Amino acid sequence: MHIISPKLDFSFKKLLANEKVRRYLVSDILDIPVERIKSVRLLNTFLQRRYRKQKLGILDILVELDDGTKINFEMQVKIYDHWDRRSLFYLAKMYVEELRTGENYEKLKRCVHVSILDFNLTDSEKYHTIYRMRDDEGREFSNLLEVHVIELNKKLSGKDPIDNWIAFFNANTEEELDMLSEKSLGLKEAVRELKEMSLTRQMRLLWEERQKEIRDANARESYVRKQGYEDGLV
Asked: 53 with 75: CB under 8 angstroms?
């Protein structure tokens, strides 16, 4: 069987549409025992605009836990300019979007942005990095804003709960998936879902279309770089 990559946007979104997959992925990323997660419901991924010219926020996967915590998941296979500012923009929009005029600040809930990256953002060997608001001596100011960065291309230590999920996202063969399916009920369900996707004609067509888009984009970038070198612009 040819396995559709779980890194593609449509396959990633379909995987996280599965409640059991969401529950176990949230558990391993946020280090919350899975039995304590009662609800992982999907929310509308369009963030409100406060005024007409304000930039519209569109999240990839937005999940709300039973305690009101909101988590935005995104899978990125190519680096963006100003990636850090972009991530903070979406995190800030999530944080303020539901507070209406005159409401108390106590209504603001914890917001978490999770970026799963198919490229190395930093030179550090650490592949699961958590950013929070702290003072210059490390004391936490607030836990209401949090960013998780998971880099798929770095060497795993075997000690982080997210390791098996990284191996899943990087899996290329059915044999690799079968081994991972024994690690947890969440991974077992993710493997089942991915195999099912890989068998459907519609998903295969989407995969082939996306592969063509990637090849075409790479060809365009290569041409632009080549022209830049020839014209002395690079």
From this structure: no
